[in-house]
Amino acid sequence: MTSDDRYKLYGVYLSPSTVDSLAKALYDDAGVVDLETYFEESQDAVPVGDPGADATDELLQAVLESFAPLYDRAAFDAARTVDPNAFSLVHLAAKPRRISELRERFQAAATIQESDLRTVQTAILAAYLETDPSE
User: Fold this and answer.
1) Residues near 27 by Cβ (< 8 Å), separated by ≥ 6?
2) What is the value of pTM for the model shown?
3) Which residues lie across from 9 on neighbouring strands?
4) Which domain of life is it from (predicted)?
5) pLDDT by residue (tens digit) across 46-92?
6) In angstroms, rounded to a whole number, what is the distance separating the alpha carbons of residues 51 and 32?
């Protein structure tokens, strides 16, 4: 497989409520029944054309494209109140370059917020999932 016909897996730590919102969105968009087990952790790549992988790639593309406004709307203080043991690692599929760009932006946001990645990932993805698609 070439990099054009596969996605890499990207792990994000999310609060329980954000996992629930993401699972609902991916169920609605691609029929993903169990988000937490949809992608096997041992998988290195997922083929393009997999409905769940296509949906998560599109979601992460949208997050990347609107990262600055999502950052501005993100409820970092609320995400900081989540018990550190409550976060879940969720694997999403995306193009390798998209993952690299997101990783850099999440890391920069964590540095600016003087916070950890799970807080930043939760706050920004929650802001995305709360966005009205008509906006």
Assistant:
1) 33, 35
2) 0.89
3) 93
4) Archaea
5) 888 989 999 999 999 999 999 999 999 999 999 999 999 999 999 99
6) 8
